[in-house]
Amino acid sequence: MCKNHISLSIFAYMDSIIRYAGKIPLWRTIVGIILILTSIYGFIFVGVINGFLSLIIPIILLRTEGSEINLQSKTYRKTNSIFGFSIGKWQPLPNTEYISVFSTSENETIRALTAETTNSRDVVLLNIFHDRNQKFTAYSTTSLKNAFDVASHIADALAIDLLDATLKNDYKWVDKDILREKGEIVYID
């Protein structure tokens, strides 16, 4: 009986944590797994040092960023995850005011020996605002629908408002009830 009580407590604790992590593209997953297998080969046949060195690239490929919010202890952390194992420092959750769905572009610069290129892609950020315009980014995605689904979930869990800031200088409050029930974005005047 005591054993069941412990497992129920663990599940209740796990349910109080909201987790979001970015998705890894399929090609990165495939390449990462292949490189891990070659690292194992390196451990066995080439040597421990070469095996460890060859693990660096798959870890970079399979790493994803995200965030976790613990509703029970009122803490949050930005995470780096690989294969579902997350690390990050827990911090006290500030007095949250609202969550914003914000569209922007993200630039990534790639450098080689003699060349450099910058790639730009559109992203949607979920920023949680607190303490008069202080913020932290809780989630990043490329899908607007996914962003509003996640923002609605976080807004409901934290009992805060949801702001659509996807259009520059045209910010509107979203009716969370209609978004949750019908999946439609309806604005509050």
Q: What do the pLDDT scores average to?
A: 81
Parts with pLDDT < 50 across at least 5 consecutive residues:
1-14
Tertiary shape: elongated
Strand order of the largest sheet: 8-7-6-9-10-11
**Gyration radius, in Å:** 20 Å
The description of the largest β-sheet is: 6 strands, mixed
Number of strands: 11
Terminal residue distance: 54 Å
Helix and strand element order: HEHHHEEEEEEEHEEHE
Q: What amount of the residues lies in strands?
A: 35-45%
The helix/strand class is: alpha+beta
Approximate helicity band: 25-40%
Number of distinct helices = 6
Question: How would you sum up this structure, described in words?
Answer:
Helices cover 37% and strands 39% of the residues. It has six helices and eleven strands. The termini are far apart. With 189 residues, it is an alpha+beta fold. The longest helix has 21 residues, at 26-46. The strands form two sheets. Strands 8-7-6-9-10-11 form a six-stranded mixed β-sheet, with helices on one face. Strands 1, 2, 3, 4 and 5 form a five-stranded antiparallel β-sheet that branches. Helix 2 packs antiparallel against helix 4 (56-62).
